[in-house]
Amino acid sequence: MFRRSRLSLIAGLSIAALGLTACGGGGAGPGADGGPVKISFWHSASGAAGDSLNQQIAAFNEAQSGKIQVEAIYQGTYESSMAKLANAVQSGATPALMQASDIFTGYMIDSKLTVPAQDLAAKEGSYDFEDLAPAVKNYYTVDGQVRSMPYQISQPVLVLNLDVLAKAGLTPEDVPTDLSGLLSTASKIKRDSGIAGMSFFVNTWWNEQFTASYGLNYCTPDNGVQGQDATAFKYTDPKQVETWTTLQDLVREGTMVNTGSDATASVGAFTSGAAAMSLVSSGAIGNIVKTGVNFAVKPFPVSAADGGVVPGGNSLWVIGKDRSSAEQKAAWELSRYLGSTEVQTKNFVDSGYLPTTLSAAKAVASPTPQQQALLDQLANSKPTTATAGCHSGALGEARQALQPVLESMLGGGDVRAIFAEQESKAKDIISRYQQRAGK
Amino acid sequence: MVGTSHDRLSGTGGLPMKTATADQRVKPPEQRPRRAHPWAWFFLAPAFLVLLTFDYWPLLRTFFLATQGTDLFGAPSGFVGTDNFELMLTDPRFWNTILVTFIYTGASVVGKVLIGLAIAIPLSSRLKGTPLLRSIVLIPMAVSVAVAALVFKMMFQPGTGLFDQISGLFGAGPAGWLTQPQMALLAVVIVDVWCGLGISVLLLLAALDGVPEEVMEAAQIDGTGTLQRLWHVKLPLITPTLFFILITQSIAGMREFTVINLLTGGGPGTATNTLVIDIYKTAFGSGTSDYGAAAARGIVLLLIIVTLTFIQMRVLERRVHY
Fold this sequence. Notes:
Chain B: Its main location: membrane. Chain B: This is Sn-glycerol 3-phosphate transport system permease protein. The complex is a heterodimer. Chain A is an alpha/beta fold. Mean pLDDT of chain A is 90; it is low at 7-25. Chain A has helices at residues 2-21, 47-63, 78-91, 105-111, 117-124, 134-140, 162-167, 179-193, 204-213, 238-252, 263-271, 285-291, 325-338, 341-351, 358-362, 369-380, 395-409, 415-436, and strands at 29-30, 37-43, 68-74, 97-101, 114-115, 141-142, 145-146, 149-152, 156-161, 196-200, 219-220, 232-233, 256-258, 275-281, 295-299, 314-319. In chain A, helix 2 (47-63) links the parallel strand 2 and strand 3. In chain A, strands 1, 2, 3, 4, 5, 8 and 16 form a seven-stranded mixed sheet that branches. By secondary structure, chain B is mainly α. In chain B, 67% of the residues lie in helices and 2% in strands. Chain B contains 15 helices and two strands. Chain B has helices at 5-10, 20-25, 40-65, 83-89, 92-123, 130-138, 145-155, 162-169, 181-209, 213-221, 226-237, 239-255, 258-263, 275-285, 291-316, and strands spanning 68-70, 76-79. The model of chain B is unreliable at 1-23 (pLDDT under 50). The chains are: A alpha/beta, B mainly alpha.
């Protein structure tokens, strides 16, 4: 009897201990026996992009056999992955390499957890940053230094369901290249064919992209990229207000299939023929190709001469805190590999994420028309302050606050008044963030 | 070993009966002096340890965090007094969250009780085929809530989902199940009711089965109709179970996370943003982990649940017949 209880006690304590340690994800470091340097890599890549990443990690481990061993761990969405990183900092179990989405660029710098990519290149192994596509380099350069390795870069694009478009008597050439023209075409398709002109998922990312397409800064001053921290967000420019008012109208008249915040459902409405056009991330192209739908890719509509798109996606950050120099070196080696021409070309073909370097873009053999359209858009993107995107560590929180507002705003309401209120709240968010960051 | 004839008659299957003689011989355990159980605390220790680690320590930590500022990594950055509460209580979005939480919980509890009764009452009859129907009704209990939510999400898809396909047959357009605020709230309530219906039906069936036949027969002899017997006899006799369901499902509704997070994530807008979802978003949603603000919300949730349970106990218990 006592023996059984003692066993139960031991089992209970073991379970409790396992529960306390199960979330640890830090790099294991160099083996005590002089074996390979083991590092962990936290990422948020799923679907076609995740499959591609796993293949790349397997290839890297094979090539570095006996020297470096990488454990790639999927940590869920970017937001939950970042929340786990914050916890890991407290427990000292940080990964050696972290994939973070574009919007966390400011936060990663403010966190002081990371080692700048350019410093690592100078110390641990060179990388040709001049080969980065100008628009990509523009986004990931802060205070004159490339801070992280751009990895899966995406841009917003317009996709056209050619079969549905034909039912409305249109060809891809008939679709205008500016935003208001595009939205008018969506109404025309609905009127002429009875099929919704567009599918759309609500995300604050679109607000940022619409803003850049007008050549405007999303946060001030200077999108936070000219040496001064951003202190406010800009939501109330007449162009921003006009765009969302039009989107409201399109939802009301049934011209636009509004799938809420669900991007997959929006792509689903497009591929199933429930909508003729859709605004998507280039990262979704790989999944659209898999459905076999007859589609074309057109550039994201740009409405001003100095406007463009913000190349988002994600980049790789080598963590310095709690990680040994051997681990940092190994993480940088993996970063260089994932940023190489070979991997970037494969990444593009597998998933639709854009090649980060000029040489990788050139190396794409016989691209499909859809792939060529993506490459053209990236090559034509102008590196300006507006297309550098807002670099504020508070962008994540500002997005979280704005997201529900945009979702409900599509159902109705005074767009200008709603945005004005949110602009004021966003200012408080930045202020609170600065306080938390000790700035 | 076969029991005595006395044991068999009493239906105890051979176990010694608590007769007067037995009571004299065996002292009830609760009356034994504590020193008679020197190992008791040792055996209880694992359970206490788990309770302390996973229940009471997080609770104390929550109270501590609610009074703290939070740095960029979620770590406490210093005492801020009631700042986190003031920020929360002066935000109109917080009060909307409370309202949504009550609407969601109320609707789902009412749904589980009323639909549960509507299913359990006919199933409690001794008609042919009811055992099979009972099994079928209880199947949702075996389905993971996450799986159910994802399946329903597919059925709610605009245009292509099952529900819109069916309504399309009658000439109706897409209902916007997950994109229209009222519809989204209804949708998450439907899924929550579906997921929780099994346990409600099971409890109600057990209660209905426990209603003494002789009481029902007496009521019938007195000339009451079926509905009268149901309203005046059966329902009063199962009030302890109804009371139990109301309390436990109210608490469950207040704390529901999976269904809402998977179906709508609190949207569209703030239509389904309940307090638990708000806590999650504040703590983890933006990636910067504002644990102080989230802990303050957690304490509000705790207070609401405790108060609600207390009120239910005081008000509803008067109508419960034990």
